[in-house]
Amino acid sequence: MERAVPHAVPLGQMEVFQALQRLHMTVFSQSVSPCGKFLAAGNNYGQIVIFSLSAALSSEAKEESKKPVVTFQAHDGPVYSMVSTDRQLVSAGDGEVKAWLWAEILKKGSKELWRRQPPYRTSLEVPEINALLLVPKENSLILAGGDCQLHTMDLETGAFTRALRGHTDYIHCLALRERSPEVLSGGEDGAVRLWDLRTAKEVQTIEVYKHEECSRPHNGRWIGCLATDSDWMVCGGGPALTLWHLRSSTPTTIFPMRAPQKHVTFYQDLILSAGQGPCVNQWQLSGELKAQVPSSSPGLLSLSLNQQPAAPECKVLTAAGNSCRVDVFTNLGYRAFSLSF
Amino acid sequence: MCEKCYSLLVPDSDRSQMILVTPVALPSPDEVIRKRLLIDGDGAGDDRRINLLVKSFIKWCSSGSQEEGYSQYQRMLSTLSQCEFSMGKTLLVYDMNLREMENYEKIYKEIECSIAGAHEKIAECKKQILQAKRIRKNRQEYDALAKVIQHHPDRHETLKELEALGKELEHLSHIKESVEDKLELRRKQFHVLLSTIHELQQTLENDEKLSEVEEAQETSLETDPKP
């Protein structure tokens, strides 16, 4: 889909073009602003839009409040992942990572603060960056993607400090284990690897597809999503969604979900997951499905929980995926409304 | 009179019903007063009665006959008492309104307090819910691990099995040792036997050789003296 719009185009074609764009849009990533009142979403055309959550949730919300307040073209390719620090929005796509100041974006500026490219092995490679992770203790950013390595970048200096190698196929997702500063990464090769950040070595490897209880060979062995809660980890994708005890590397609970899950997160005493299929699933740690809340997209790729302490009234769950809509759940039980591109 | 729209509820011409009179545009206070005077010219009941009383007093003062005067006097007294009655009623209503206001104020304050209390209770309960959720999560984690542990057999049993196996192993190795010893002994004895046989054989052979040599010497001695 071309992203450049030709100037001399009659109105009818323009509308058709836009409608087609919206039909084929996929929202890959979301990120909440540090003040908690805005949500950024990145799609497959490389655009990043900002929605005002406080306006959309207020009692005087109209149809326009559910549209973006700012739209800008961030990358040439899809925006696969985004994170927010306390002042910046960092977005990553095909090979590059860029940062934008939240204060400037909100004033309708679209000038990037910096852009970097991690050191790839050959200059011909332009691998996509699938996952970004902030490590607040070291003030660094971890990037992982198509070149099967985890790159650490210091946010102050912008220099790439480490490259952790071990995966044999590209990496889908990252998670941070806070107590011992370890990073978990899961990828296409079916293994979840734990890396110690201080020694820059691989500490533990869990090959999920080798365990009979959770492996589903007909789906493949790829790990699509990871979340960790210090001693526990939940991962899913090709194999079934499983809860692991990290110390003993044993799978403890298998969640009976047939569709591969693309995003999973711990929330209070629940595990929220979403993937192929239009629902956001809520699981209890014992393996029971507590609730399945349908959303408006046929498949979901990312979930975002706005838990910023500065805006408790905007505490919502937002889900986005294979459509141009971002669903907002004010109460985990039902979909309140949808923001749309 | 309604403050916002200046509409007035007035008795109609024969005092049988109340009509709501609403001006279309919001007029100035002068217009309001003018309209009110127009509609309510004489004043409602009480005002009218006092006017009538004054008029009848003047008439009575200037009236002649005794009886008429007396009846007029009675009528005036009754009108006066009616006026006093309605004034008393109005005072009571006024008192009642004041007390109602106080009552409402009190209730309003109480409700505000209870709202604040309810807010606090809600906050408390939310904290308790979070705590309970944490506890539930811990319990579920415990259960999950316990399930996994249950799959593995009991440690005591495994230790006992290990001990039993160890004893068997010892016993068997004892047997093996004794068998090996026996084998060694037999081997040595056999070896001794064989070596003794060999020696005997050697000795026999030696004896045969000696006897052959002796025979050869004897025959050579016999042939030698002939030449």
Structural features, described:
The complex is a heterodimer of chains A (341) and B (227). By secondary structure, chain A is mainly β. Chain A is built from three helices and 28 strands. Chain A has a four-stranded antiparallel sheet with strand order 1-2-3-4. Chain A starts with 10 loop residues before the first helix and ends with a strand. The relative contact order of chain A is 0.12. The model of chain A has no long low-confidence stretch (mean pLDDT 88). Chain B has a domain at 31-117. Chain B is 81% helix and 4% strand. Chain B has helices spanning 29-39, 45-61, 66-151, 155-223, and strands at residues 8-11, 18-21. The N and C termini of chain B lie far apart (193 Å). Chain A binds chain B through residues 231-232, 243, 245, 248, 250, 252-253, 268-269, 284-286, and chain B through 130, 133-134, 136-137, 140-141, 143-145, 147-148.
Distance between the termini of chain A: 17 Å
Mean pLDDT of chain A: 88
Spatial extent as radius of gyration of chain A? 20 Å
**Strand share of the residues of chain A?**
over 45%
Overall morphology of chain B: rod-shaped
The first-to-last residue Cα distance of chain B is 193 Å
Number of helices of chain A: 3
**SSE-based structural type of chain A:** mainly beta
The description of the largest β-sheet of chain B is: 2 strands, antiparallel
Task: List how many beta strands of chain B DSSP finds.
Answer: 2
Q: How many helices of chain B does DSSP assign?
A: 4
Strand order, main sheet of chain B: write it out: 1-2
WD repeats (chain A): 164-205
Organism (chain A): Trichechus manatus latirostris
GO cellular component, one term (chain A): THO complex
Protein name (chain A): WD repeat-containing protein 58
Keyword list:
heterodimer, A: 341 residues, mainly beta, globular, B: 227 residues, mainly alpha, 4 helices, 2 strands, rod-shaped
